[in-house]
Design brief:
The structure is a single chain. By secondary structure, the chain is mainly α. The chain has one domain. Helices cover about 65% and strands about 0% of the residues. The chain has five helices and no strands. The radius of gyration is 32 Å and the shape is elongated. The N and C termini lie far apart (about 70 Å).
Length: about 130
């Protein structure tokens, strides 16, 4: 989004009338939502003074912004869905905050000792 925003700003001929709105847009160049709002307000106020090139770049920015905004919405929906799925997965698991209760739940017989590797003797594979 930044490259589209920079192209729009660089295409505008700065004069006394539009210096402050352009300066405001520059402050929000890394915030697509804020920049989009300021740029469109600027466009509404100065559209009769803008070159065709600038107008085309603003239209291009708005198209790119719409795609970006849609992607952000889809990502938020996917994150919400994932969070709900994880929440449902762990709803059935109850863990006590009391360590003694957890330790009592483990019994010595429930934990088996691991046997070491078997030492199988067989014919050697030497030729």
């Amino acid at each position: 989004m930044d490259s589209y925003a920079i192209n729009v700003i660089n295409s505008i001929a700065v004069d006394q009338d539009n210096f402050y709105p352009i300066d405001a847009m520059k402050k929000f160049i890394n915030s697509p939502d804020e920049f989009h709002g300021h740029m469109n307000i600027f466009f509404s106020n100065f559209k009769n003074k803008l070159s065709n090139k600038t107008i085309n770049l603003i239209i291009e920015y708005n198209s790119a912004y719409q795609l970006w905004s849609n992607e952000q919405t889809l990502l938020q929906m996917a994150n919400k869905y994932d969070a709900e799925q994880v929440s449902e997965l762990f709803d059935s698991i109850n863990v006590s905050s009391n360590v003694d209760s957890i330790l009592r739940g483990l019994s010595k017989t429930g934990i088996s000792k691991r046997k070491g590797p078997s030492k199988r003797k067989g014919p050697s594979k030497r030729n």
